[in-house]
From TrEMBL:
The keyword 4Fe-4S does not apply. GO terms for biological process: deadenylation-dependent decapping of nuclear-transcribed mRNA. One of its GO terms (cellular component) is Lsm1-7-Pat1 complex. It comes from the Eukaryota. SMART domains: Sm (SM00651). The gene is LOC111480024. One of its GO terms (molecular function) is mRNA binding. Gene3D superfamilies: 2.30.30.100. PANTHER family: LSM1 (PTHR15588), U6 SNRNA-ASSOCIATED SM-LIKE PROTEIN LSM1 (PTHR15588:SF8). Residues 28-96 form the Sm domain. This is Sm-like protein LSM1B.
Length: 144
């Protein structure tokens, strides 16, 4: 039988029913990512890239040659982290990177770590200022 199907025979007819294993192996399993390059998004917004060494039943992942990719506007920097343990409850997304595509769009440029930290700080301060200004404007117009 092709396609991993189980044949159920009753007195009337023969039915083809997909086996449970066929459904299990269609879904992405974290075990299929072993020794592959992963992108992991964390709850705090950080982006970790590295090669998965191992995992456990709680979704914790050990990543080697890991680095944190920091973005600010049209710039980025890769901060080396080495061997890293990512707790499963901190990961929002774990996915394999497709090595046949470029990792980043061409308009994003690489900069040094001090430069990206300055740009990131300015970006965060700008967003905090915008949220504060928006809050003040909402309070102002709520009173009218």
């Amino acid at each position: 039988m092709s396609g991993g199907c189980v044949v159920l025979i009753n007195s009337q007819s023969i039915m083809m029913v997909p086996s449970v294993l066929e459904y299990i192996f269609r879904t992405p399993c974290i075990g299929s990512y072993l020794d592959r390059k992963l992108l992991i998004l964390l709850l705090d917004g950080r982006c970790i890239i590295g090669t998965m060494c191992t995992f456990d039943q709680y979704g914790n992942v050990v990543v080697e040659s890991a680095f944190e990719r920091i973005f600010a506007e049209n710039q980025y920097c890769d901060k080396p982290m080495g061997l890293l343990v990512v707790r499963g409850d901190n990961a929002i997304f774990i996915g394999e990177m497709d090595l046949s595509f470029p990792e980043l769009p061409p308009h994003i440029t690489a900069v040094s770590l001090p430069q990206i930290l300055i740009a990131r700080k300015a970006e965060l301060q700008s967003s905090v200022f915008k949220r504060t200004l928006k809050k003040w404007m909402e309070e102002l117009f709520d009173g009218i």
